[in-house]
Amino acid sequence: MSLHNILSMMIVDDSMIIRNRIARLVAGPTLPHINIAGLAANGEMAVELARDSRPDLITMDLTMPLLDGEACIERIIDFLPETKILVVSALADKATALRAIKKGASGFLHKPFTDEELLDSLLELID
Amino acid sequence: MRHELRPEDIEVFSEAITHFFNTCTGETANVRSAYLIEHGPAVLWNDFNGLIEISGAYTGSVCFSAPRALLSHVLLKMGESVFTDDRHADIVGEIANTLSGRARRHFGEGLSIAPPRLLNYGEQSLPNISGNLPYAIPLGWHGYEASLVVQLAPGP
Amino acid sequence: MKTLLASLFGKYRDLVLAIGIFLLLDAGVSAINIYTSRQIEADASRINAAGLLRTYAQQLTKGLLTLEMDLRNGQRTQSSLAEISEARLGFDDARLALEKKLAQPSALPLIEPESLRQHAQELLASVVRTWEPIDREVGPLIVNADPDPESAARAVQKAVTRNNRLTQQADDLSETLTEMANKKTSTVRLIQAIAISLAFLNFAFILFKFIGRLAASDRQTAAAREETERILGSVREGLFLLTSKRTVGGQRSQSLDRIFGQQLQPGADFLAFLGRLTSTANAEAARDYIDLLFNKKMKQSLLEQLNPLVEIELLAEQRTKKSPSYLTFEFNQIRENGQVVALLVTVFDVSQKVRLEHQLAGAEARADNEIALLLGILDHNPHEVADFLSRARDTLQLINGELQSIQPLRQPYPQMVNRIARIVHGLKGEAATLGCSSISRAAHAFEDILQPLRGRNDLAGDDLIPVAVALSTLLSEIVKVEAVVKRVQHFAGGKSDAPPPDPLGDSLRRIEQYALRVAEDLNKQVRFEAAVPRLDHLPPALASVLREAVPQLVRNAIAHGIEAPADRLRHGKPATGLVRVELTSEADGTLTMTIHDDGCGLSVEQLRGVLIERELYSPAEVAALSDAQVIATLFEAGVSSLDSAHQHAGRGDGLAVVKAALRDLGGRLRVNSRANSHTRFIMQIKPA
């Protein structure tokens, strides 16, 4: 997936609490070492940050101000085709998930999620 | 189209909220018996109120209303160590978001759901819709009490 | 390689072993053939050598005789001497060769018995013994170029005297050797014959086994194919394989065409087919989803959540009357070596389910719009209806207050549910009496919601959400009727403000209407009689009894007491049953209200059965109850003598409502009944 061994990851969510929670879980012992490359609170910030930090993994909310998650995925995959994106969203309908996957996301996790659910989803992504 | 609200249309929200507490805090929230809010528009009596407004096949709103102390405790359970107003508002917004996602899955695509917004204590009351009375679903968690106010009617 | 070995020693082991043995037998036969030809050669040279012995012995004798004659005739002796010498050397050579050949022990004692060889050796030895004296005489004779006739004569004599014996012995030897060779040949032939027959047997075994196995496997394949066809022919779901080219596979269930309402040919382009079948949005979602399914990197867990082809609606122009209108598709990946090679597609017809859901929703909507439901109230006094409506609203608000304030404990929830059930049942009765059928229907639906909750001890808050919803529905129904009543009053121009001149008569007429409607609903015939004094105004206690208790008791009388017309005729009663309401007042102001019916009466035995059947009491408890006690259970909540709930009876709360209402008024309720004759409920109300 990447030339260097240590994976980097970006967290995109308009809720700071969710961003913090994901960051804390990623830092825990379950996952291999992952660098948090950046946190973004909206889609535009996420695209900028992704261009600079070129993360291997991204967790992505869908309902966000400025640029929504779907458009954001499309833009990022355009210049980072190898990056794995996990959609973490409360929008639980299939059409949304299918659209996100079609645009390049690699996984889908419904909010609210437990610690295990997030870790499992990330592990599946890294495999 | 359906005209009457069915029990499962209300149960969806109580399930969503208990599911949120179970998954995010690992502790069960107890739903008490639901009742109707009878006199006038529903007054919000808690510190933080997250509202989602619904239009389309059904119109109305769903509001999660909780005291500050409950939310602080939730933040603590989720591993937060900062307890500013912002964080409290953030978590109420997140809960409202969860409700909106669940509502969309239950009622289908024909529903348009506005992004959650916060109401300030004492400043506003729920927008009233004619006809049906709003349902209040009290929720006990860790000795605190929060409420879910569901006000839905078939759309015009 | 490994797999080849595995199959060599696995399923085909017998066969491989048999072929191995066959080859071994063949090799054996060949080896024997080679050995035999060598032996025949060796035997021939031995027989030949034995013949030479005889020939040279003869030649020597003849040589000696020639020599003697030459000597006697004084002729030259060179040629006879040479002949003698040649014969002697020849004999020795043959002898030595034979000795050498016979000295070797037999390589295969089975084929060339040792005894025969030793016998031949002995024969040869006797030949040699006969020969040696001749040889001794001949030896010195031939070293001399000019042999003396004496020695020649001696030699001749020796040779002649021994010649016969020698010939005989050489013949014997020759015969023995021939015999040996013959014996050997026949033994080898036998062995050969056995080996060849073994090889034949083996070949037959192989053939039999192999063909048998082929036939068995053919049979299995045929059976499997038949089974597959049977399965594909009988499953109700549509089954087919979708190839990675998105085309339909060859094997498909027969139900497929019925489910689609048209042919889906093997090899057809599935996505194009889907595009004709359902909306563009659905078809596009399906294409995306199928693309994901063929992507081997996609996680199964993710895919399971994403299937968009669930309960999809088929395009109207694609449906015939009989064909399904809603389908659900399920996809299962078929993987080979990690690659997704095809999808197993299962198609379910979910039209029935979706249609039922729609019908249910439609029925609710219809009920909502049926103005006819509201028209019933026009037969009644708007004041009474308005009065009932406002009381009903107050009652429901009380329930709501209870829902709001109740503590979430195990005990209060069931108690509250029972309380609500009683109140709602009372409302149902009143609403029906006043022609508010939409309200009585909502109340009946409310009871349906409450029924499964009753008797449960593990009620939690979220179990009660349907109660709140039913409460809301009932309340909104009441609000709707209230609005209608208000407009009716308005329409009447406020003239209806004057109080009714005969309130008791009005009430009883209302009850009579109700009684006739109940009877009609239950296919019974009823005559309603009232024997009451005329009253200018109704005492509040009496008004309450007329509102709540009397309708309940009248309904009971018709539902439980009065029999169906045919049953009545069979019991020698008139087809039309009688329900009679009497009111008497005593000097002290005590009112006695009697509801009498000439129906089947209370059956204590049947009641006992009901108590046990509904598990309200154990058989032992029921046995211990006196008849009076059994009758008394009628007044407990949850007991009804009818089997199933319909709108007019059977929930088992009617009498409990009556009892509660009377208790509130400080009254008494008695019952008196005789089987097949009558039931009479007597209510006594003391003045306040």
UniProtKB/TrEMBL annotation, chain B:
TM region(s), chain numbering: none
Origin species: Dechloromonas denitrificans
Domain Chemotaxis phosphatase CheX-like intervals: 49-138
Keywords: Chemotaxis
Pfam name, any one: CheX
Protein name stated in the entry: Chemotaxis phosphatase CheX-like domain-containing protein
Single GO BP term: chemotaxis
SUPFAM superfamilies for the chain: CheC-like (SSF103039)
Xref: InterPro entries: CheC-like_sf, CheX-like_dom
Coiled coil: none
Taxonomic placement: Bacteria, Pseudomonadati, Pseudomonadota, Betaproteobacteria, Rhodocyclales
